[in-house]
Amino acid sequence: MLDTMATLKDAHLQFIDHLKGKSRASATILAYGKDIEQLVNYLNSLGRNDSSEVIMDDLKTFMDKLFKESYTAKSISRKTNSTKTFFKFLKSSGYISDDPASGLEHPKFENKPPRILSKIEYRALRDAARNDIRIYAVIELLLQTGIRIGELSKLKVEDIDLTGLTLHVPKEEGTVERTIPLNAPAAEAVSKYLEVRAKSQIHTLFVTKTGRPLLIRNIRTAIDRYFKMAGIKEAKVNDLRHTWVAYHLQAGTSLVVVSKLAGHKRLSTTEKYLQFIQGQVNGSSKVKLDEL
Question: For the chain, what is the largest distance between any 2 Cα atoms, rounded to a whole number of angstroms?
Answer without folding.
Answer: 64
